[in-house]
């Protein structure tokens, strides 16, 4: 087989444009800061509600600290009326001195590490602006260049291949050759969910919590079913992004971490070559 | 030392190493997060937010209003809820008979009004959502004197840029401590909010005279802002050209403590 064989995949492809790489980096940084500062903000009212206003006796979720008769602190998380003891993680965790403290989240999950609503809001809104500007640049450029339409939007054949793709993922089978030069259907759907649903949804539900924005665009609190519902969706979407991140990291490691990290930094992706099938096909001919 | 001892020892060491690595990472983060330069840079976003909201908010655009049935059965009272300041307690004791609202500063005609004077003026009633910076919201019905009418009557001088609301309560400082005055509550708003139709000096809540937990006898309603802008226990409104000289210089009790002065977000 010669290198000019049109049937063989290239050794390397230019997978990520410079703009995609830069916006990916700023996106990752923004989402990390927004998550940690957002969790600090949440500590000021560690409960979720539905509707415009809160109904204090009907929280969807509540994280609190209880004091026992013998003066111990217990962390409790209540979801839809069911209470779970979550000491050490939610409600009560150790302070810098190792003493149990009334804290919604552990120190390592909040920015700043100490409870500080004012500073957490400063971090949150600065990086919210960065996320919006960065995301708008990504979306505008990649829609203009048809990257989203051509490479991320699933085709009819993609959708038909969902069951097979699910099995491939469960068996940790990764594509090689030409197959590896394009995104598989689950990957496309996951990226689209982040780009089109989760991140824009975070921005819109975030804006709905702003009294100024609700006056400017009354459609916002109406569309999300109220300020408190918007806050609840904001919370659920945030953790959905965390779930995406975990799967994203697992897949990155399974698919070859050096190649994957290299491609998001330099743009160049080394195409995993299929050894056996190439030989088999030669023998068959 | 047995193999098991070795393993547990190694595990202990690994745990310690990970914990100290974590601590180093955290303290490194803390150095960044506590740096005044970083915090200053983060504050730049507030100007962007203010300008962006002012751009899309037309001057008369109203905050959403709600129906009677939406009124919250329990409206949380936050911040000062029972001021112990001597002058205030005296006013409470005689039902605010001697309480007066002063409007002064950069105005052509300084005014002094009793509660009866305020009640005799044309009133506006609105059912609005109160959004606390902490994340909760409650819906309440407010009745009061529109701020715009009063300020037009007082007549702003050309260099007036803000209204400052001086309050009778001190928050977080004990009454006999030397820095007592430093913990006096105050807030300020820009002219765009002064002349907004929903900006009220409210003396009634849900059809009843305003109670002590919610700011008796008079509180501000500026509905396109967060709760901490809705100053309670007001005794004086001062028109000023700049906020620099007041208390911490940031234009409000909470802004002096790191919160955004522009509370539309």
CATH topology of the largest domain in chain A: Fumarate Reductase Cytochrome B subunit
Query: How far apart are the first and last residues' alpha carbons of chain A, in Å?
Result: 12 Å
- What is the global morphology of chain B? globular
Following the backbone from N to C, one meets helices and strands of chain B in this order, namely: HHHEEHEEHEEHEEEE
Number of helices of chain A: 11
- Distance between the amino and carboxyl termini of chain B: 62 Å
Strand order of the largest sheet of chain B: 2-1-10-5-6
Quickly describe the structure.
Chain A contains eleven helices and eight strands. Chain A has 285 residues and is α+β, with helices and mostly antiparallel strands.
Structure write-up:
- The complex is a heterodimer of chains A (285) and B (265).
- Chain A is of the alpha+beta class and 285 residues long.
- Chain A has eleven helices and eight strands.
- Chain A folds into two domains: 12-43 and 114-276, Fumarate Reductase Cytochrome B subunit (Up-down Bundle), CATH 1.20.950.20; 47-109, no CATH class.
- Chain A has helices spanning 18-42, 117-144, 147-152, 156-160, 162-170, 185-208, 211-216, 219-223, 227-254, 257-266, 276-284; strands at 12-14, 47-48, 61-67, 73-79, 82-85, 92-94, 100-102, 268-270.
- In chain A, the strands form three sheets. Chain A has a four-stranded antiparallel beta sheet. Chain A has a two-stranded antiparallel ribbon with strand order 1-8. A two-stranded antiparallel sheet of chain A has the order 6-7.
- In chain A, helix 1 packs antiparallel against helix 2 (117-144).
- Chain B has a single domain (63-257), classed as Sulfite Oxidase, Chain A, domain 2, CATH 3.90.420.10.
- In chain B, strands 2-1-10-5-6 form a five-stranded mixed beta sheet.
- The longest helix of chain B is centred in the N-terminal third of the chain and has 31 residues, at 3-33.
- At the A-B interface, helix 2, helix 7 and helix 9 of A face helix 1, helix 2 and strand 4 of B.
């Amino acid at each position: 087989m010669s290198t000019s064989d049109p049937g063989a995949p290239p050794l390397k492809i230019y997978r990520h444009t410079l703009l995609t790489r830069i916006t990916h980096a700023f996106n990752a940084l923004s989402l990390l800061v927004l998550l940690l500062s957002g969790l600090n903000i949440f500590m000021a009212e560690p409960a979720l509600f539905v509707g415009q206003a809160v109904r204090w006796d009907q929280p969807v979720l509540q994280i609190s600290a209880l004091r026992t008769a013998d003066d111990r602190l217990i962390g409790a998380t209540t979801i839809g009326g069911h209470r779970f003891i979550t000491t050490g993680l939610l409600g009560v965790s150790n302070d810098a001195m190792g003493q149990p403290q009334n804290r919604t989240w552990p120190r390592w999950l909040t920015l700043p590490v100490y409870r500080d609503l004012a500073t957490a809001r400063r971090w949150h809104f600065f990086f919210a602006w960065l996320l919006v500007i960065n995301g708008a640049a990504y979306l505008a450029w990649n829609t203009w260049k048809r990257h989203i339409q051509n490479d991320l939007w699933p085709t009819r054949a993609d959708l038909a291949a969902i069951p097979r793709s699910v099995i491939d993922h469960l068996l940790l089978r990764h594509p090689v050759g030409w197959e590896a030069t394009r995104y598989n259907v689950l990957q496309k759907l996951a990226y689209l969910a982040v780009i089109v649903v989760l991140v824009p949804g975070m921005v819109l539900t975030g804006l709905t919590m702003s009294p100024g924005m609700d006056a400017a665009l009354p459609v916002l609190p109406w569309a999300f079913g109220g300020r408190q519902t918007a806050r609840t969706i904001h919370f659920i979407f945030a953790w959905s992004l965390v779930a995406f991140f975990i799967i994203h990291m697992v897949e990155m490691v399974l698919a070859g971490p050096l190649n994957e990290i290299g491609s998001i930094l330099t743009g160049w992706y080394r195409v995993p070559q299929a050894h056996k099938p190439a030989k088999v096909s030669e023998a068959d001919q | 030392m047995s193999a098991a001892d070795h393993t547990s020892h190694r595990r202990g060491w690994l745990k310690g190493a990970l914990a100290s690595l974590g601590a180093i990472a955290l303290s490194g983060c803390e150095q960044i997060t506590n740096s005044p330069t970083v915090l200053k840079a983060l504050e730049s976003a507030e100007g962007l937010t203010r300008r962006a909201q002012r751009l899309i908010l037309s001057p008369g655009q109203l905050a959403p209003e709600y129906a009677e049935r939406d009124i919250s059965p329990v409206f949380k009272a936050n911040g000062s809820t029972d001021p112990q300041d001597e002058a205030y307690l005296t006013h409470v004791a005689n039902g605010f008979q001697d309480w007066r609202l002063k409007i002064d500063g950069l105005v052509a005609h300084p005014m002094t009004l009793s509660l009866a004077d305020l009640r005799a003026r044309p009133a506006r009633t609105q059912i609005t959502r109160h959004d606390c910076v902490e994340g909760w919201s409650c819906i309440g019905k407010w009745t009061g004197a529109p701020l715009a009418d009063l300020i037009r009557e007082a007549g702003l001088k050309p260099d007036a840029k803000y209204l400052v609301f001086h309050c009778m309560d001190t928050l977080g400082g004990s009454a006999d401590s030397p820095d007592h005055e430093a913990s006096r509550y105050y807030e300020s708003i820009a002219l765009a909010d002064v002349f907004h139709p929903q900006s009220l000096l409210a003396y009634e809540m849900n059809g009843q005279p305003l109670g002590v937990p919610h700011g008796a006898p008079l509180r501000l309603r500026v509905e396109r802002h967060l709760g901490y802008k809705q100053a309670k226990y007001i005794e004086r409104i001062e028109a000023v050209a700049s906020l620099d000289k007041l208390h911490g210089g940031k234009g409000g009790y909470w802004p002096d403590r790191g919160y955004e002065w522009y509370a539309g977000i």
